Amino acid sequence: MTKKVLLKYSAEKAKKPILALIIKETGTLMNILHAKFDAEGGEILLAIDAPDAEAKRAIELFEQNGIETKELKRAIQLDEEKCFDCGACLSLCPTGALRLTDDYSIELDEDKCIYCEICVPSCPVRALEISKF
Amino acid sequence: MTKKVLLKYSAEKAKKPILALIIKETGTLMNILHAKFDAEGGEILLAIDAPDAEAKRAIELFEQNGIETKELKRAIQLDEEKCFDCGACLSLCPTGALRLTDDYSIELDEDKCIYCEICVPSCPVRALEISKF
Amino acid sequence: MNKSVAAINDRIKRGDAVVVTAEEMVEIVRERGEVEAAKEVDVVATGTFGAMCSSGAWLNFGHADPPIKMQRLWLNDVEAYSGVAAVDAYIGATQLSETRGFEYGGGHVIEDLVRGQEIEVKAIAYGTDCYPRKELETTVTKDDLNQAVLCNPRNAYQRYVAATNSRDETIYTYMGTLLPNYGNVTYSGSGALSPLHNDPNYETIGVGTRIFLGGAQGYIFWEGTQHAPTKAMGTIMTIGDLKEMDARYIRGATIEGYGTSLYVGLGIPIPIINERVAKTTGISDEEIRTNLTDYGVPRRERPILREVTYAELKSGRVEVGGKEIPVSPLSSLKQAREIAGTLKKWIEDKKFFLTQTVEGLSTDQVFQPMRQITAAPVAKDLMTREVVTAKPSDSITSAAKIFSKQNFDHLPIVDEKGKLVGIVTSWDIAVAVGTGKRRLSEILTSKVIVASENEPIDAIARKLETHGISGVPVVSTGGELRGILTSEDISKLIGRRRR
Amino acid sequence: MNKSVAAINDRIKRGDAVVVTAEEMVEIVRERGEVEAAKEVDVVATGTFGAMCSSGAWLNFGHADPPIKMQRLWLNDVEAYSGVAAVDAYIGATQLSETRGFEYGGGHVIEDLVRGQEIEVKAIAYGTDCYPRKELETTVTKDDLNQAVLCNPRNAYQRYVAATNSRDETIYTYMGTLLPNYGNVTYSGSGALSPLHNDPNYETIGVGTRIFLGGAQGYIFWEGTQHAPTKAMGTIMTIGDLKEMDARYIRGATIEGYGTSLYVGLGIPIPIINERVAKTTGISDEEIRTNLTDYGVPRRERPILREVTYAELKSGRVEVGGKEIPVSPLSSLKQAREIAGTLKKWIEDKKFFLTQTVEGLSTDQVFQPMRQITAAPVAKDLMTREVVTAKPSDSITSAAKIFSKQNFDHLPIVDEKGKLVGIVTSWDIAVAVGTGKRRLSEILTSKVIVASENEPIDAIARKLETHGISGVPVVSTGGELRGILTSEDISKLIGRRRR
User: Fold this and answer.
1) Beta bridge partners of D484
2) What is the ipTM of this complex?
3) pLDDT tens digit string along D306-333?
4) Of D49, D51, D176, the CB nearest to A122
5) Chains D and B touch, using 3 or more CB pairs below 8 Å
6) Which of A113, C348, C391, D428 has its CA 20 to 30 A from that of C191?
7) CB contact D332 to A (< 8 Å)
8) Digit-coded pLDDT (tens) for C357-415
9) CATH architecture of B76-130
10) How far apart are the C-alpha atoms of C161 and C70, rounded to whole Å?
11) The whole model's pTM is what?
12) Which residues contact B37 (CB under 8 A, 6 or more apart)?
């Protein structure tokens, strides 16, 4: 199963190519879902598509390199029956996981979701739901 | 000043011509404003237009003849500014003192009023007022 | 022959239109027939001035600083409803003052607004980031309001029932004070002048009809609540600018023992577009019938005593059971006539033009009772059936023994056929012993307040309250004692309901 | 060239009418000009789907047996208003449930009614001779109601301001959740599709205009509250039969931290009666401007940051202070487009005909603030001006002495110019003594929640509540300490108000 891991970089760590180094070292497939990053540090959301043990090893390596990691054990759902595409959630989403399509529909790209849950109560018809597992 | 006196006759007293006798005896001017009367007894509303002492004497004579008397020390007013001629009072008035004219206006004939006050609270705009003196 | 509203408006513009009141039209149709009347007359002006409880006004106060989203608000201590946007509120005619009770209500607030008087506003709120304010007090007149619009969900009942009272006590109803034993009759509506009765088929009246409303020009914008055209009980929703109205035609009212209301002056111009409409505007008081109804029975379906015509009602006397009973109109016939006259003059003076409606009103809507999920309990559902009784011939001493063993304070006295003939209380017994009386027949109270087996508990509860008593014997229609119902039995029920 | 509504209706009847949506019309006018567009197009269909707080419904329940005159009533625990006749009531969109708070309100009751769901009805009454019943509980669906009519005092704002937030905390407003430090922008209205913006001169829109309302055919029956056509902020009152509506276009909503509302789908058909109207229906998002407003300032007059166009807003990003800020529409643009499309289809399918209005709407009405008789108190009116302060360089010990003599728990720390640099509490002192700190500079909290001298008390009260604090230093615009305001000072004021 794909693990979603949020990496938090401090300003100091942001200068080093830690991600590249770890990918090189482990050979694990890691997909960058979302990154928000500058000289002050930032966040990278990774999807690690590997057997459990291998994924665990990669996460340990990040920690050893001084990167804070957080495994996201959640799922978010947009109930399309309830959603009437008002977009109240759009501007609250920090990663662009919620976005407006060309025909003004709301679309949820769960890959980008960091489960901050700011959008959930903002939905006037409770069409956004977080489940934890 | 004219005194208004309400005479209450029992069935027994109703049979005797007491009013006629007293008028004859005293010579006092007494005007019958309103009467409701049958074999069971009833009421007569009198206006006695005589000096105080003379009127008092006449009232005493009624009492001596077993007629209950009640001097009406009141005045009723219909505030024509407030009244909008709905007629809620009309059917409550036991003596016809409140009546509808041909043009559907409410008219108050105070001479006929026995100050029962049933009409007062029935007026939706409080246009009927009783004052006591 | 057919005339269009546009053609009639052209005639009004030219000063050629023939406008008559509905009363005048009765004579014209009677004398010349509807065919001639339709040719001659262009507009018939109607009018009514009666208590219309389903009236109220939308008010907009403008924003306060800091802003408030009014959660609850009071106008001269009468609660208005603000369950809409921040500073919009609806004040209804029957809402009572929290300090002055029946003497002042929403209807009076509306009249005071029309009169230009200052109204005290108090509001509370829960407070939000955009509307932080939680309390507000100010005073306003209609001039301070952005909108002050009379907006009535039910006006101008085509006709209404006439009311009387079979009970042996005076009752206070929305049909006015009703004297005991059919002592009087009340009715409402202006008969031949009634706006909706002049076009009962809704050929000319509909959504968008311009009308006389409270002295201003207003509009019909929907069928009214309880609209029942097939029963000649049509109603309309109306709207008009309160700021333009005249307090002569908008009057707050107190209906004794019932509550407050609003007298609304309303007139509809009927364009005589064809002979059918000419005929319906020719309707006379003799032709408008209604049911004389017994308000002494506190049920949804009240017994009908007879049919009466508005002609009889307007005569001031109605026969009930061989007696001539005095009548109260409740609506002001004088003002109804004045309104029709004013509307006629407005049209003649080219100040008022007719509208072509944008949609008709329903002609087949019916008025249904409320859906109830539980039957209302009646006396026999709650009464105690096993009642110890005594006979009139029983001795005081034997009755005294009963009281010593029982836990209630009223001993019903029944005759040999089981018919209730009176009641004796422990206090009566005590007095009897003191004064040397021997038999119950000497001391029983024969005037007993009773309930019938099928009388609803709510009505009995009101009876107990009104008379300040703690229980009543329950009797059959034949007068036989069937049980006893006490306020305690009723409290138990209400306790169950509240759970 | 001029066309009459009647002629357009004839074309609709014949199947010849050219109907386009307001978005399509933008292109037509842009490409061919209004003269050609007026010849070609008969009707422009508009649409909007947004939260419209000033919405609600009139309901008639029919009479209960025994009858009740509802004095207060609740629908699914949301209070409705029955200050009118016995069984009429108005339920408003923003009225909150008494058991579920912000999660359920009048808007949800209305949606549930439209969906045909059962609604719990509870009512109480004071009881009268004609309406003896004092309590009622039942359940109803819309089918059980005699009338269920959406009747909205304010719908379809022509346009509305856009909102952002200067504060350093998230705020919850009727414009949605606003992130700190201009973190996002929200707006409402459908821009080029906006019904009233397509006929801003009210040449075709007025009393009696038939519209798409909640999926049914409804009507405009008056100007809406806060109607301000000269500011391009016109509004309308609307009515339509709830029983015929579709829950797709009538949705109860919770606005986080603000309350409940109702999303209403509304579309107005604009008959292209002349070239002026063709031109106004050609308006594009680029031409519709509105003010980006700072909702961080909790006052009636909120600062305006800049003007933005609906084109910018719809692009999803707006520039504020050199930064691109994400935007939320709040109204559903997708549903607005769908509504315009449905209305277009209804007309093409001869299911919907236009109306000739019976009266215009005001074109010069203005929206005034509330009349207030007392100025709202601000910080400087209530604050304590004599405040004992300390300097950052003062010793812990000297500060401890101040606490021993004073009756408050916060010691403001000011620099030599009187500027507030931090605050120290008695708890800080205790900890400092325990950990061997010496100077106040080592322990002071520099992030202090403050109030400004002219900040309204209501806003400060909310601040104290939100942050769970008992008082704030009051500072000048330059940051100098001017006083202290505690919740106690505020309670005293509120106590005075309540007397």
Assistant:
1) D384, D473
2) 0.91
3) 999 999 999 999 999 899 999 999 999 9
4) D176
5) no
6) C348
7) yes
8) 999 999 999 999 999 998 888 999 999 998 889 999 999 888 888 887 776 678 899 99
9) 2-Layer Sandwich (3.30)
10) 40
11) 0.92
12) B9, B14, B43, B44
